[in-house]
């Protein structure tokens, strides 16, 4: 038992790991996940509209993209984007691994968000689009102004859930060899574990991930409940008057 505690909950290692994890690792994890979800939302909406197109030549590239990036393991995508592109001479971010990390997670996120947005848009009554078109709006304008905003509202819980997934998948970018000041939670913990042969830093990193994901999970559940109930609170049943208590008169009411 003592060995177990020393391996996973060593007080000295925890005290050394937490300051770096909270100041550098937490910041970069949120930066990577935040930029990835922004990129994923923009690309995901575009892909969703392509998937809903009546033209096969528009739908097909989007369907291939979504199926490929949803089918590949995330670690393979991170390796192909972060290590493969620079090796092939394609260096949109130069030698900065942080840009490739955001791109890799964003591409994965976009594939899942495309299906989320597609289902949300399809849940909007078709009459909304027809009414907009009857007012003289073009198809793209009606989608942008009327349909897409309603579709996004329908999928807000799923959108928040995808952000949680992006936070967890940001741990895979340790493969890209982030530099000092760019390291995310897992990268810092993994370096510390390799140097000390003690897993307390990994436990500390896990606690930091839980600090992010548990409140977000609670938020997702509350948001989902609010959207399903329309923000209405359930009425409490009226209290039953005690036996022998006279009913209030009209004047008293």
From TrEMBL:
Chain segments carrying region Disordered: 232-253
InterPro entries on file: AA_ABC_transptr_permease_3TM, ArtM/GltK/GlnP/TcyL/YhdX-like, MetI-like, MetI-like_sf
UniProt membrane topology term: Multi-pass membrane protein
Subcellular location: Cell membrane
Pfam families, sorted: BPD_transp_1
PROSITE patterns cross-referenced by the UniProt entry: ABC_TM1
Chain ranges passing through the membrane: 30-52, 64-85, 97-114, 201-220
Keywords of this entry: Amino-acid transport, Cell membrane, Membrane, Transmembrane, Transmembrane helix, Transport
Main location per the UniProt record: membrane
Residue span(s) of domain ABC transmembrane type-1: 26-220
Compositional bias annotation for Low complexity: 237-253
Record family assignment: Belongs to the binding-protein-dependent transport system permease family. HisMQ subfamily.
Protein name per its UniProtKB record: Amino acid ABC transporter permease
Species of origin: Streptomyces doebereineriae
């Amino acid at each position: 038992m003592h060995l177990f505690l020393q391996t996973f909950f060593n007080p000295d290692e925890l005290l050394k790991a937490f300051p770096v994890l909270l100041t550098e690792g937490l910041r970069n994890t949120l930066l990577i996940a935040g930029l990835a979800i922004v990129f994923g939302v923009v690309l995901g909406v575009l892909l969703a509209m392509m998937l809903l197109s009546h033209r096969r030549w528009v739908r097909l590239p989007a369907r291939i993209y979504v199926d490929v990036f949803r089918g590949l393991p995330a670690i393979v995508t991170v390796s192909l984007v972060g290590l493969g592109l620079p090796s092939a001479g394609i260096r949109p971010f130069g030698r900065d691994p942080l840009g490739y990390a955001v791109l890799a997670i964003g591409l994965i996120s976009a594939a899942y968000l495309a299906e989320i947005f597609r289902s949300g848009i399809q849940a909007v009554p078709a009459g909304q689009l027809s009414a907009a078109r009857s007012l003289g709006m073009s198809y793209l304008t009606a989608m942008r102004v009327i349909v897409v905003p309603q579709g996004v509202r329908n999928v807000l819980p799923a959108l928040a859930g995808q952000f949680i997934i992006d936070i967890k998948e940001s741990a895979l970018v340790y493969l890209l060899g982030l530099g000092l000041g760019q390291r995310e939670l897992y990268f810092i913990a993994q370096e510390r574990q390799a140097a000390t042969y003690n897993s307390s830093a990994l436990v500390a990193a896990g606690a930091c991930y839980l600090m992010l994901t548990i409140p977000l999970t609670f938020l997702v559940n509350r948001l989902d409940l609010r959207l399903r109930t329309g923000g209405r609170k359930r009425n409490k049943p009226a209290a039953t008057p005690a036996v022998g208590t006279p009913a209030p008169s009209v004047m008293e009411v």
